[in-house]
């Protein structure tokens, strides 16, 4: 724990009496540390693709062999892509941190789920992964920001596909419960080791940084999801078995019927 002594003069005489208070600044210190780590991480994450692009472009400018020119161009595109994704995720995250919800409506989670599946179906099929959806016939309304909820579901489905092998299934289910609407995203993918389960919601935390980068991950997806769920007074849980699969379960308070 950290403490700080604060001296407060009483009155404005040249030599006023004063009181000394002891403040517990542990939480402030912790937040400062989180912020510092974040800035260091962001700098590191940005430097890698930027550095790559500069080196590759330099090589490209001196290259005449058409096949090599093509190969270098594609690698520059990949790095540029990664940079763009990182910037988008960082902007999303900073928007989400203003915890106020600006656009509050009754949101039908069936629609959000169906839209999300539409967005990913072709990409998943191209990788040999079957995307299925199981909606609730009862209208599952929650109060919140549709853009945020859609980005949370998309991040979970994106991960489920990213960390799965061909010939497996990713399932998105929406279910109305007594006081909440439950959304589950399950996959039959590589799974998450038990020791990492509590940390995956931290910014930039990855179980396997190489694999995450190779699949285009920024390490920010689950922090975005966590923020969205917190902003909506919901909860999120994860269960996983390595080599068997992972299930994320979100519960959001229902709009009173
Ligand atoms: P990333 O951009 O690396 O996917 P996330 O914040 O979305 O970052 O996820 C953090 C880490 O959690 C990932 O790097 C990955 O190791 C692990 N992870 C997330 N979802 C899954 C999943 N469905 N199956 C296996 N591992 C996962």
TrEMBL record:
Residues 41-256 form the Histidine kinase domain. GO terms for molecular function: ATP binding. Its EC number is 2.7.13.3. Keywords: ATP-binding, Kinase, Nucleotide-binding, Phosphoprotein, Transferase, Two-component regulatory system. It catalyses: ATP + protein L-histidine = ADP + protein N-phospho-L-histidine. It is found in: Cell membrane. It comes from the Bacteria. This is Sensor-like histidine kinase SenX3. It comes from Ferrimicrobium acidiphilum. The lineage of its organism: Bacteria, Bacillati, Actinomycetota, Acidimicrobiia, Acidimicrobiales.
